[in-house]
Design goal:
Order of helices and strands: HHHHHHHHHHHHH
Distance between the termini: 41 Å
Number of strands: 0
Strand content: under 5%
Mean pLDDT: 83
Number of helices: 13
Radius of gyration: 19 Å
Largest sheet: none
Number of domains: 2
Oligomer: single chain
Low-confidence stretches: none
Helix content: over 70%
């Protein structure tokens, strides 16, 4: 394969990623604006709020940590809450290794930074459905998905910071988070193991809802992984 052909395929993969990532812009806008509003209401300065959103770039973890900070929780609990919410990122990273593990270190580092729900779920679905993709094409596709999302995440957080409390409660922007998760996760529940893991996680999370922020979610995630593994093993044995 010539260098020109390789570059063309990589460019096409990037453009396909941009196309597939564009619909998420409609979710990112209200979600990032909401974080800017909440961060301002919590007393964070412009520099603090923007540093938070640029360095962490993980909405659910940002909201969890911010809520704990508002409640004057101890720093270890704040970090634990963010870790619990973002534990899934470790699972995301592990599942990307077979597809992107051979990429150069700097590319893997960039993918790690941009590895959040929308980029991961969109990319892993593409990789599974297109096994013929090369590593450079996979990397470029991942970057393409992130391209329309990340600049909006930064800029609309800034809009939310400046807008502050002027945004009416009637907009109900806080519903974006659960709606986003449902919209992304539901199509991936393709097997009995997936369904069992999801059901167990919901039940355990609800039972442990009174635990400190993040703890119930952490335990529910662990229970879901164990359940999924057990069901998958059982199904394999039946075959």
């Amino acid at each position: 394969m010539t260098t020109s052909t390789t570059k063309t395929k990589a460019r096409n993969a990037y453009l396909a990623g941009v196309r597939d990532g564009t619909p998420f812009m409609f979710v990112v806008v209200p979600f990032s604006v909401l974080f800017g509003v909440v961060a301002t209401d919590a007393g964070l300065s412009l520099a603090q709020a923007m540093s938070f959103t640029v360095l962490v770039i993980a909405g659910a973890a940002q909201f969890a940590a911010l809520q704990m900070m508002v409640e004057n929780a101890a720093l270890p609990l704040v970090l634990l809450a963010a870790l619990a919410v973002n534990l899934r990122m470790a699972m995301y990273s592990a599942s990307l290794v077979p597809y992107l593990g051979a990429a150069p270190m700097w590319q893997r580092a960039l993918v790690s930074y941009l590895n959040f729900d929308q980029t991961y779920l969109t990319s892993i679905t593409r990789y599974e459905n297109s096994p013929e993709m090369t590593v450079p094409e996979r990397v470029m596709y991942f970057m393409g998905v992130a391209t329309p999302i990340v600049p909006l995440w930064y800029s609309m957080t800034l809009v939310g910071i400046f807008a502050g409390a002027s945004i009416p409660d009637a907009w109900a922007l806080d519903f974006i988070l659960p709606i986003t998760f449902l919209a992304m996760v539901a199509p991936m529940l393709k097997s009995l193991a997936h369904l069992a893991a999801a059901a167990v996680s919901v039940v355990v999370a609800l039972l442990l809802i009174n635990l400190p922020s993040g703890m119930g979610l952490l335990i529910a995630a662990g229970a879901a992984m164990v359940t999924g593994t057990l069901v998958e093993t059982w199904l394999e044995q039946r075959k």
